[in-house]
Amino acid sequence: MTLEPAVEDALSEPLMASSLWFMIALMGAATVLFVYMGRNVSDPRIALIFAATIGVPAVSISSYFGLASGLTIGVVEIAGRGETVTMWGRYLTWTFSTPLILLALGLLAGSNATKLFTAIVFDIGMCVTGLAAALTTQAVWMRWAWFGISSAFFLVVVYVLLVEWPRDVRAQEPDVQNLFNTLKLLTVVLWFGYPIVWALGTEGLALLGTGTTGLAITSWLYSLLDVGAKFVFAFVLLRFLADEPETVARKTLFGAPTTADD
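^ thats the sequence. predicted structure below, dont judge the formating
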């Protein structure tokens, strides 16, 4: 496959390339570390949380390699601006990785299947409509319309995170409640960073620049958000599960008491 000249120029920029290869190395190391941390897990609920969380860096490796190889980077012609390089592969990884984050967090909260399904479906809708915003070329206002739709989906996810799941986690042990509240705030704060970067970056208002340097800055901002939203989130969660499995293992998958609790 022959890369478009604009894509080749972007990937030849050291600042841009480093934002991708750094994440490949980090997510690769994270996957190995998290698998090792879960080597002794036997409880079904904890095992599912581990599996979902380990899937986050595992999916990210493929995504970042797709970006680094140029496979999931394209060029779109934006009305009034001209050619713009878009890293559409990021939306692909968010579509797969963010539902796993929500699954792990919802299971930790002891939420039910309906709330988990709601959060995950609207999250996927957020990612897909975000991709539509990045790829739309007919008119700039249409890009922002898609961005608005994506933001509406996002607000539903935020509602579940800040309102519904905090109610569910009250039935859990105090240590689990504290962990959930920490991860909830980490997730909400960092996830708000993504649409802000989109709006300021090369696919939005282009306030960071439209050339390769602007694209590299945008890419690094996304990568740094991923470090916090994926690696830090996963490490804090899995370290707690590995150190105190009995605290979380007292509930079944969707929060109902186990026989031992009756």
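The chain has one domain: 5-249.
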